[in-house]
## 1
Amino acid sequence: MTPHFGLPEFGFLLRGLQWTVLLTLVAFAGGCTAGLAVALLRTCGHKGVEWATRIYIGIFQGTPLLLQLFVVYYGLALTGLKLDAFVAVAIGFTVNASAFLGEIWRGAIEAVPRGQTEAAMALGLHYSSRMRDIVLPQAIRISLPATIGYLVQLIKGTSLAAIVGFIELARAGQIVSNQTFQPLLVFGVVGAMYFILCWPLSWWGSRMEARLALASQR
Amino acid sequence: MGYTLDFSVVWHAMPALLWGCVGTLGLALAGMTLAMVIGVAGVAARDSKAAWLRAIVIGFVEVVRNTPFLVQIFFLFFALPLIGLKLNPTATAIIALGVNGGAYAIEIIRGGVQSIHKGQVEAGYALGLHKGQVFRFIVLKPALRAIYPSLTGQFIMLTLTSSICSAVSAYELTSVAQRIESDTFRSFEVYFSVTFLYLAISWLLMLGFAAISHRFFSYPTR
């Protein structure tokens, strides 16, 4: 007997949605921390370090997220550490996020007018205070639309955890679809759940972008 | 412990992997071609007088851009047979890539068309150019130039996205890699090497696109 798509199946999808949100939050938090380090190294002024971070970013931008996940997932398995699937994929997404956010914030840091840094230097502020109090607050404002854009990418990207077997929303959808033989309904619902998650963020991001564009026109 | 890396399996499988690269490029090229068709048609429909047509295009773009490609390809995989299209996985993957890329292409092309100032067209007519010339030299070429970086960037992204088509076992690099992995159990070695094959593909594409841009679009604008 095949079950129909009913409340229990919907509940299963909702639990998958929970894992999608959790995975996104963990990877975004980790990616923000590591991405800030990448952005600062990328703009530190030391040629060798800047090149190294540039290559790091280039590798993540030039390869498929799915393959990055595979490499991290199977690479971690080789180290002999017995990691939970959630931890393994979270590490994969965090590393990816660090490269993309690092590049976004590099652009934002460089978009802050040079005079701001020069004025801070003239006032005798050292590097950490110059960054923390002068440059980064302005850079964050500039980078917000792109950062939100990446967050949407990340939510959609977590669906790839399904392929390495972690049960989040997309994998839950596959399972329910195989049980109920109602793939169109199930993937329709799954798609709608992703849409409800992503669309408000996209809308917010593009509205902010329009506002920033208006502000910089003056 | 005691695991020693063995890349010789990758070396032996290199011919199959290189054919996988060809498959990936073919898939991406076919997908991008379809995406361009959808993109141009979508832009025309997006600015049409019929409100319902505009609404459909806007809805299409928003839905595609705010849902994962994996869910899209699964949906199409089951939906296409229902409308009478019984296709093999590779053809399904091409349609999925085309639909996905098309939504992004609509936004990009629309931006390019909007970047052409109306005064430029009027100036063209004032200089005595006929309609075909105005379209070719004043609308098409500058618009292409304006959208070229984002369009080629999108093409590279689509090439990387095509790896997800392995989920419906379309013929491309990642599915070839998965087959080799299940034959040899050398997961890390295979995927590590394949990652760098993708990197090589995207670098080659980037270089190629830069060369084309240099050949056709390097003229002064002021």
## 2
Amino acid sequence: MIVRQVSVFLENKTGRLNEVAKILGEAGVNISAFSIADTSDFGVLRMIVPDPGKAVEVLRASYFSVQTTPVVLVTSPNQPGSLARLLSILSTENIFIEYIYAFSMNEDSAVIVIRPSDIEGCVGVLDRYREELGVGPGGFQV
Amino acid sequence: MIWNETIECASREEMRRIQSERLVETVQRIYHSVPTYRHKMQEAGLTPSDIRGIDDLSRLPFTTKQDLRDSYPFGMFTVPMSEIVRVHASSGTTGKPTVVGYTRKDLNTWAEVVTRTLVMAGVHRNDIVQVAYGYGLFTGGLGMHYGTENLGATVIPISGGNTQKQIQLMQDLGSTVIACTPSYALHLAEVIKDMGLSGDDLKLRIGIFGAEPWSENMRREIESKLKLRAIDIYGLSEVIGPGVSCECEFQCGMHVNEDHFVPEIIDPETLLPVAPGERGELVFTTITKEGIPLIRYRTRDLTRLDYTKCSCGRTLVRMEKCTGRSDDMLIIRGVNVFPSQIESVLLDMSETEPHYLLIVEREGNLDTLKLMVEVQEQFFSDEIKALEALRRKITHNIQSTLGVSVEVKLVEPRTIERTAGKAKRVIDNRKI
């Protein structure tokens, strides 16, 4: 399924991530998953949250640069080889991945967040290969 | 030695007579050939016949860099382009440079005044002068070049940069004079040391340094490291280029070639002349230039004038080292930088008010520019490569506008300090 991921521009310095976590915590917004892409000077914090609208609102109020980006969320069997199967299908189908991150839900399933260059194309491919991959539509509750 | 003793040691009365005659002639000429001047004089209720001598100078309206920009490129030229044999240009604040044009007579005048300044500095025809100012649109290189040839000394027209080669030629060709910016002189000294050499291994005896502000501390440092006498030279392309004024060997103020460029000091707030000897903004009127004569041009440089006779025998008025600016212009490695240039580049890219902070540092001996730009949401992309591309694009656009390299750092919104609602734009950490 397609969800709105919340991205925040952060300078690469002490306390910035803490600041975001604090603001979201005080606003009662849970962070289900996140990753950070960084360079020597700055980073981009990407988060999956249950209420992207609220997260954006409270972060903007504290003058952060915030953006929401559509990403594809898939649940996949939590076992060796399943990520490889997913990636090889996407690559065979020419779906380019801008970035990707994942986390384990439990012993049975993991959730993978994909930012493909072509969102609709990626969802189409995942639908077609659903049984082969054993992927769910992203049944995980954010 | 004095190159032109009749002029350089003239009595005050004689100098004022020369200035009066030339001012009257210049005002006649510009009134009839440059609409900008004619309109300004008409607004001030003046006709050319009201200007009868140098005492009437302060009645004339001022000219500013904005006037030159508004008339870009040739609007303030007094002669047809067929009479112009060369143009130079300095960087502008809105992407457009300020263009100045020279007739053949102007180039001769320029060579004459540069020759005078070289001789003031102690250069003679047996010297080998390495001109390490940039050659090109910048007036530094070619200005020093033709003055040196006019003197009869040997020119090494190496231009700026390429430090290793500069030092190699100094050694191999035995350069006795170096002309460059003072910060580059310090950089040369560092590299000379890194190469295991010292000032004693070179034949340099005089350095002619200008195009940026420098202090007495820098002078002492350059003199002890390069084993030479460091002379301050002043000029600006609008007036002519290098050679407007220069120190003599006594290093006690820069003698202004006032038979060509008449200096005044005004209060930048009231625009009235200050009391004799008071510090204020330097204003120049060119009284022999043909291509683009300037009437009461506001340089924005702060200094003061000393009319007492110098120990060298010259009576040419002396101006003190410039102590600052009456506007926000910065001089970075000899290049004029206005914060508004950065603002307009960022504005072009984002279409909203950019927040930035320019930090100037002196690292080693070279000035560096660091630009912090707040990543407002219209700049922000979720993808690192887009942010890196943004950073490169800002860097490229700023560098091509300013002509100096800049390190761009993207920072979070609201991290640049605002004072009373307005952001502070420049931090200059240089200890000059």
